[in-house]
């Protein structure tokens, strides 16, 4: 599965209805299932190819404040490009290019969440550098939100940053959040559940 696009909160109403443009155009996909939002999961709408080899998932994550698409298929690329364009989505490459041009844009809480959701499972230096910069931001709310966002990729490279924040951050809540995240990271990286 690959997370491929995020949508700002303002796009949520069109996507939340389940009647987005992607559902009206065929793309070889048909409605498969809708999973309502619960305490442990976001709302999810799933479309599948007629042979069930491809599935496109749209998740409305109220905790992160974003809506995003996930595709699972051997031929993700063509579906990904079409879905991103049709729904006016934001890919990781586009997001990184935008924050390179305007670094202040990365301080938006929705952008921080999108970076976390779109970060690949394997280490990506540009994303790591952006997160490192945000973890050092002067604003405690930005650092705290970034700690939540880095849980999505859970790269071991974050451990030293979390250790430093858990012991040295000037803000109590950020230190506390870093301690909790560090414990979760270490448990995840050790293979424990």
TrEMBL record:
Pfam families: HEAT_2 (PF13646)
Listed InterPro entries: ARM-like, ARM-type_fold, HEAT_type_2
Residues forming coiled coils: none
Annotated protein name in UniProt: HEAT repeat domain-containing protein
């Amino acid at each position: 599965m690959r997370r491929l696009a995020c949508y700002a909160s303002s796009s949520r109403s069109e996507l939340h209805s389940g009647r987005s443009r992607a559902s009206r155009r065929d793309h070889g996909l048909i409605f498969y299932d809708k999973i309502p939002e619960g305490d442990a999961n976001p709302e999810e709408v799933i479309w599948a190819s007629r042979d069930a080899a491809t599935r496109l998932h749209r998740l409305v994550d109220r905790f992160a404040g974003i809506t995003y698409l996930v595709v699972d298929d051997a031929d993700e690329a063509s579906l990904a490009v079409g879905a991103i364009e049709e729904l006016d989505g934001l890919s990781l490459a586009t997001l990184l290019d935008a924050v390179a041009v305007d670094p202040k844009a990365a301080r938006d809480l929705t952008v921080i969440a999108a970076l976390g959701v779109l970060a690949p499972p394997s280490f990506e230096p540009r994303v790591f550098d952006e997160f490192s910069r945000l973890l050092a931001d002067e604003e405690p709310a930005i650092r705290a939100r970034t700690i939540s966002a880095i849980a999505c990729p859970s790269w071991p490279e974050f451990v030293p940053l979390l250790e430093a924040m858990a012991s040295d951050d000037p803000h109590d809540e950020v230190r506390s959040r870093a301690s909790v995240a560090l414990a979760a990271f270490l448990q995840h990286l050790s293979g424990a559940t």
